[in-house]
Design brief:
The protein has 13 helices and 25 strands. With 459 residues, the chain is α/β, with parallel strands linked by helices. The protein has 2 domains: 248 residues, Rossmann fold; 192 residues, Alpha-Beta Complex (Spore Coat Polysaccharide Biosynthesis Protein SpsA, Chain A). It is globular, with a radius of gyration of 25 Å.
């Protein structure tokens, strides 16, 4: 799946029942998921266990009997990838919900791969209080997504901004007339998680906060996500802007005990070595190959994953193969390497772990970048969450560069021999972070026989 998509980042299985509940944004999320899955030619049902407005532009099955509904779904799914399902249509053009027990039987029928369920209502408000009958989550759900709008921060908990404000006050301990804080939202979200866990105990849980583009303080993201670390069944926390072209802005991998975002390092090793006249990565400096020196430095750092992008037919030396046996390393082949470095950047992004928030791109022919540089970049990035984080030596910008996932769409547009540097000018200055280092190796690469001779004994 596309690493920039919501479905890819959620690491969906081949068949899922996904229930979404909480504040405003549920319908936008489900429509987004439906479009992405339809783009993958998956068969999807969009339904509810409460009430939703009848979706536009997709066929709709309305039937209060299971067998009749299944028959109509089979017929409609022959020509359409997404079909809406309800038990009846109200005068206000709202679909009434299906029996929650239908979902498991529908998935078992083999007709559908994904069932998307809107499991409660919020009157379009970013946050809500819960009545005893809410939400209505099918027990057969495989993934549940409690959702809040981050635009609730700072709002007064009254009926203008909150659905059932009197119930929210009880859940969060907030007071009438006092603006909602991150702590209040956390209490609400944890309450929602427990509701979902009780109704569907076997489901994975991915909490999601929408409208993150309205958030002023990025540190709030880390505070919120960190509060869920160690919660059973929760490995990911997503922050989205569902109205934007790229919906997923931040993803926090909670499966490790680290407070750092998940960081992948893509080692670009698919070049043609035209200026060297031989494969420079296997030439030796201080009795070690250029590639081995570069890889060793990366593997000594705090990166969570290493993607080595190579060209077809690459055969590794035995000492290199030992490094590649590290469980963090994944080798991918760029079949389009002759099209230039941009193709390797895209190959690396596509191969990265779906929970990656930032990718460090490093050149395999830069063997003098020590592990400390990678760790300094990661530390700075974890503090700032900037779109670009890069090292400096005596005021000069060098490699490697860490790209936040919000910058990846621009990398995916590059063509030919244009590297990530082409993106710098299009990134806002406030989204760039630099790190001063004492390491000249960030400026040195091995491109020519003269370079090799000059640095054969190191720097």
């Amino acid at each position: 799946m596309d690493p920039l998509s919501l479905t890819g980042s959620m690491q969906l299985g081949e068949k899922e029942i996904i229930a979404v509940y909480g504040g405003g944004g549920k319908t936008s999320l489900l429509c987004r998921l439906a479009r992405e899955l339809a783009g993958l030619k998956k068969k999807v049902i969009f339904t509810t266990t409460t009430k939703i407005f009848k979706p536009d532009n997709i066929p709709c099955v309305i039937n209060s009997e299971f067998e009749g509904a299944l028959l109509s779904l089979r017929r409609n799914l022959q020509n359409h990838d997404v079909v809406a399902l309800g038990s009846s249509l109200m005068p206000n053009n709202k679909l009434t919900g299906i029996d929650p027990s239908w979902t498991g039987k529908l998935l078992a029928s083999g007709v559908i791969s994904y069932i998307l369920v809107e499991a409660d209502g919020s009157a379009g408000k970013p946050v809500k209080g819960y009545a005893p009958h809410e939400p209505v989550i099918p027990s057969s759900s495989t993934l549940i997504i409690p959702l809040l709008g981050i635009d609730a921060l700072g709002l007064i908990p009254n009926s203008r901004f909150v659905h059932r404000p009197e119930l929210l006050l009880k859940i969060t301990g907030s007071l009438p007339g006092v603006p909602l804080t991150a702590e209040h939202l956390l209490r609400c979200l944890k309450f929602m998680v427990n509701l979902g866990r009780n109704m569907s105990p076997r489901a994975r849980i991915i909490p999601l906060m929408n409208k993150v583009d309205l958030l002023r303080e990025k540190k709030t993201l880390k505070i919120i996500a960190k509060a869920f670390r160690g919660e059973p069944g929760i490995e990911l926390f997503l922050f989205t802007s569902l109205k934007e072209k790229i919906a997923l802005q931040y993803i926090f991998d909670l499966s490790s005990h680290s407070s750092m975002p998940f960081i992948t390092c893509v080692v670009l090793a698919a070049g043609s070595s035209t200026r060297m006249g031989d494969n420079k990565l296997f030439l030796k400096i201080k009795d070690q190959t250029v590639l081995d020196l570069s890889l060793k430095n990366v593997l000594k750092s705090r990166v969570n994953e290493v993607i080595l992008v190579t060209r077809p037919g690459t055969i590794f030396l035995p000492q290199t193969q030992e490094l590649l046996n590290d469980p963090r390393v994944k080798i991918v082949t760029n079949k389009n390497y002759l099209k230039g470095i941009a193709s390797s950047l895209k190959t690396g992004i596509a191969a990265s772990y779906p929970g990656t928030q930032g990718i460090i791109f490093t050149l395999a022919d830069q063997p003098f970048i020590p592990p400390e540089v990678y760790d300094l970049l990661i530390k700075k990035y974890a503090a700032d969450l900037s779109m670009l984080t890069f090292p400096l030596f005596k005021g000069r910008r060098g490699n490697p560069v860490l790209f936040d996932r919000r910058a990846w769409p621009q990398l995916m547009l590059l063509e030919g021999d244009k590297g990530g540097r082409q993106v710098f000018s299009s990134i806002p200055e406030k989204e760039k972070s630099s790190v001063d280092t004492p390491f000249p190796g960030i400026l040195i690469d091995i491109d020519t026989p003269e370079d090799l001779q000059k640095y054969k004994k190191g720097i």
